[in-house]
Amino acid sequence: MNTTHCIFCNIITKSIPSYIVYEDDMCIGFLDIAPITKGHTLLVPKVHCSNILDFDLHYSESVMHGLQIVSNAITKALSVEGIQILQNNGSGAGQMVFHIHWHIIPRYADDGLNHWQGKATPHKAELQGIADSIISNL
Ligand SMILES: [Zn+2]
């Protein structure tokens, strides 16, 4: 992909404005302009990777560090009940910008968001078959 057409690459180079709250040599954090809760922040590595399938693992530690720093700052800055970290991979999972990013979502007691509903546990044989299939593809 030509990174000049990637909105997050343009935020990284500051070619377009954003509300940056965190930056180091390898990642950047900025407010989501369509927040699902107050303080919803995105953390993005400063390398163009589409999603977890092609993520440059050289950035892993920096991303985790950034997630922790920004989550702590949000917790201190806002009256949050908790922090939810979300990361979507592929359009089928709701990914809309194809530059890998992590959502840092402050959670509030009355935010109206629901955790996913639990479903019935499949039979042991089905679970084992799924596990075997994944393991054989590692
Ligand atoms: Zn990009």
Reading the helices and strands in chain order gives: HEEEHEEH
The CATH topology? HIT family, subunit A
CATH architecture: 2-Layer Sandwich
CATH level 1 name: Alpha Beta
Low-confidence region ranges: none
Report Rg.
17 Å
What is the helix fraction of residues, given as a range? 25-40%
Strand content: 15-25%
What is the CATH superfamily?
HIT-like
Descriptive overview:
The structure is a single chain. The chain has 138 residues and is of the alpha+beta class. The protein has a single domain (3-135), classed as HIT family, subunit A, CATH 3.30.428.10. Helices cover 26% and strands 18% of the residues. It contains three helices and five strands; from the N terminus they run αβββαββα. It has helices at residues 7-12, 60-77, 124-135; strands at residues 20-23, 27-31, 41-45, 82-86, 102-107. The protein has a five-stranded antiparallel β-sheet, with helices on one face. A hairpin with a 3-residue loop joins strand 1 (20-23) and strand 2. It starts with 6 loop residues before the first helix and ends with a helix. The mean pLDDT is 95. The structure holds zinc ion. Zinc ion binds next to helix 1. Zinc ion is lined by residues 3, 6, 8-9, 48, 99.
Topology (SSEs and partners):
Blueprint: H1 7-12, E1 20-23, E2 27-31, E3 41-45, H2 60-77, E4 82-86, E5 102-107, H3 124-135
Antiparallel strand pairs: 1-2, 2-3, 3-5, 4-5
The site of zinc ion has 6 residues, from helix 1.
Characteristics:
138 residues, alpha+beta, 5-stranded antiparallel β-sheet, HIT family, subunit A, single chain, 5 strands, globular, binds zinc ion, 3 helices
